[in-house]
Amino acid sequence: MNMTPKEIVAYLDDYIIGQKDAKKTIAIALRNRYRRMQLDADLQDEIMPKNILMIGSTGVGKTEIARRMAKMMNLPFIKVEASKYTEVGYVGREVESMVKDLAHESYNLVTKEYEEQIQGSIDDEVIKQVVEILVPPLPETASENAKESFIKTYNLMESKVKSGDMDDKKITIELPKTTHVEIVDSNMPMDMSAISESINSMMGKMGKEKIKKEVTIKEAKKLLRGMASDNLLDKESLKNEALKRCENGGIIFLDEIDKIATGSNNKNQDPSKEGVQRDLLPIVEGSSVHTKYGQVKTDHILFIAAGAFHVSKPSDLLPELQGRFPLRVELNPLEESDLYKILTNTKNSLLRQYKALLDVEGVNLEFDDEAIHAFARLSVSANEKAEDIGARRLHTVIEKVLEDISFDADEHSGETITVSEDLVKEKLEDIAQNEDTARYIL
Predict the structure, then answer these.
(1) Mean pLDDT score, 160-185
(2) CATH superfamily of this structure's domain 5-109+242-330
């Protein structure tokens, strides 16, 4: 997590074109979380996160910035749609469920990290169990010669199992009779959540009964890995670390917040929208939420809200909620030059993805520079004539051009296919020029 704002922005530049203001704001917010953790505990509690409101049309990079940021910092992160939530008493998800989802994500993240740390121990335990099935231990009364012979056989078998030479051989292993069925529903009220934990505990006790199963050694390694991992991991320590990580490093990306805004000019508005805002307010301000892993304090969770605000505006949100998102960033619409850079300058560009996909079929796919410019130009044109969906339009445009090539790829194995500007025009120009057709196809 120890990255300077400049390093964070440089990382984001590899995946997102433009939007310097948004990247800068996000980078400072992340760095401040690191700075806070270096302070005394008393001062840590006083420093609250500066929540961010991102304003911009769809497809300009709002979600991608937040997603890449969380992945880079290895922090608990969830993306939720504000429009999915309803006021308490209405049918739908309650806002507290987002914190429960974040706690679950944090637990999975911490578990994965700990499993990687003890990977060697897990592998050793699995190998040991498999070898003991193949070479059963000697009785204590065995002679010295028998013991020496056993050690040689055991070591030989251990090396064969490790190398994979024995993977096809079948053995009989013991597995829990009933697998642990985890009931996870983040929308359960507190009392129902306690009942679900009791059921999970009961199912876990039932799982102590064993059944025998004949499988190959390769399959046995996979099946025994889960059991070995459960035995070696300290579940209570994992829960404590997950809660700590969730409270101090968790990020909730609240998308489509403009859909719950209730301006005075909006007619026929949903009465539950303001209720959702009021339910959201204590979560963002700071409260305690009961989860299956324990109580989660939301005081230091970073909230990043985003919305297009085409119909409504940020001032249509409740004043109290507006005050909880002090940092506002407006993302710029994407121009032709931006779309061109997205296709050529990003690490995960669509063109690289299509090249990799067709390379599986043995087809070497190339793109002329003029063709890439045509992709960008026609995408901008389609965005102007229909709804502006930003960089997402590139998916539709490129897919339309490559449709036939992808369909017949197996017939062109070993060949090089170059996508030229003429091919792009042939496939798309007539569609793009006809506004009615462009609305339905592009």
Answers:
(1) 70
(2) P-loop containing nucleotide triphosphate hydrolases (3.40.50.300)
